[in-house]
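Sanity check

After download, print the first record. It should look like this:
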Amino acid sequence: MTRRARPFLALAALIAGCLDQEPTGAGAAGSSAGQLVPATASLEPGSALTLRTVPDGPFSLRPSRPGVISVAGATVTALAPGAVDLEAFLPTGKRRSLIHVMDPAPSLREGGVDRGLTEVSLLGVWSADTRTVFAVGGGGTILLSRDGGETWRPMDSKVKADLTAVWGTSEQNVYAVGARGAVVHYDGVRWEQVTLPTVDALLEVWGLDPDHVYIVGANAAFAFDGTGWRSMPGASGSELWSVWGTGPNQLYSSGQNGVILQWDGVRWRPMQTPTPYVLFGLLGFAPNDVYAVGIRGTLLHYDGIRWSPVAIPSQADFFAIAATSRNDIMLVGNGGAVVSYNGTAWTQAPQTASYENLRAVHFDPAGTARIVGWSGTVVERGRQGWIRRLTAATLFASALGPDGGLYAVGLGSTVLKRRGGVVTPVPVPVRRDLYGVARGADGYLYVVGDNGTVLRSADGATWEIEATPSTVLLRSIWADPADRNAIFVVGDRGTILRRTGGQWQVMPAPTTRFLRHVFGVGSRDVFAVGDSGTILQFEGRRWVAMESPVQERLRGIWGTARDNLIAVGEGGVAIRHDGQRWYPLETGTDKELRAVAGTGPAAVYAVGQDGIALRFNGAGWKPVPTTSPAFLVALTPGPSGSLVAVGTIQTFLDLLPP
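Expected structure tokens:
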């Protein structure tokens, strides 16, 4: 948020005369003043800080000793390292501000950015052969792999609409469909648009061969006969999500409200079904052996006479079905749910490669299943078992682990370990979004997340679930590095937990507002910030509310002492606590600031929206150039005096010493 400093007016000569026993010039003119702001400050040599009084009023300044700072009116300029008492002479008496001039610290600079390929939801996947794979998703995204899913590159789809499905007969004949009637065709060289007479969403494409291709969607169904496209009567009024068949006159299509239509060569005709739930996927092996899958664990089977429910060991919402044979069928759905059939029984697949919402699955000719989903996720089940090939989950926090690796956590139960420039996924025993991570004085890593989730690990590889007295979203965790009984967690509804004596306990809080971040400078000096400008302080015995100068949502807090704290938040807001009060800082931006951390009292950094990074030297904020377009969500100490920001698109951004 761009904030204007209160103007300091020149004092009238009469007032200056009243204060002429003091060597410096005047401060602000106005009403009788009471307090000097800031009461403390940490500056770097060369930086200039303008002080003010609350309320505005006249004052003059005198340093307790020369050589550390110079004074001109209400502005002090740092000259050399040292500490100095700055006396302020007000009509109501003397006030003091303690100024520390720190050794100069060169600004950190961007040292590298690691990020995922895309954060869009991938909604369709199709393998032309064992090495050539297409995936489609939001915003016209089309990804291509030519090495069996190991690496991917984006393609120019010629459209911006969300693409929901992809299918083809070879890598020279591929179709993708999506929102607003979007259809594109790939001939092995480029994608070109295909115009159909609809602006409604097209949700699935599938075919029997190059001359029999079918597209279904909202109020529409189309067939390609090798020369052109024609409408298929009977689809109006239905939202169709899938199509499959055994021949041009024997097709099925499923969709919203449990609808299943059958094509008899003339028109689509409704069939009786035993469910009101949306059916997203269809697959069959013969006219009397067809499956339809949908939400709430719904699976139907058609035996040529009627559709009947099939019991499966999951109530997840399922979005797709694929198979290599009658004895190898796979369903995929929300929360990483995978159910498979081996010809005898339906079982939940023990996959931990991803807990993202999975939206599509397809088998290549060798029997390798490729599954795509939210956050740019691609998962593979092949001869090597389950492998996460691609993901770009939003990361919400990071911390150094006991092995020296940086551990980052995020959506879809994501835990990543980054060491030596290599990022590897770490399996955890929950299917929850994870939001905070810290290393305790006991050497353990602690992770917090949705539904009261707390995980604990001694080595970063094996995790255990800890019992907590909370079921709300836990957003942030801070652990005192010197006190194993001082681990604090904050979250939704004003929730505050503390781990002491190996147990988690609820702490009474003076608010029910969402607390977004917690940080401490000691076990008896812990602070939490949150919605509507909320600031809380733990004084060793209880939490109390602090007076806040802003109403914006505060996202992060960091500091070096109770008299040198900075909090940041929405609209570019930044505020500082000088030991007596919180007061606003001018940041020069309206972009949201999500996190703040530093390497010293006068070397503080904030990151946030659109990859913004700022540095505060005790007097003002200046931009730090970055090349990342990501929304940077967290900022934490890294190895060797660095800071590491994490955020959307699975971004790691290093801020390194020069």
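If your output differs, re-run the checksum step. Summary of this record's structure: Residues 116 and 392 are 5 Å apart (CA to CA).
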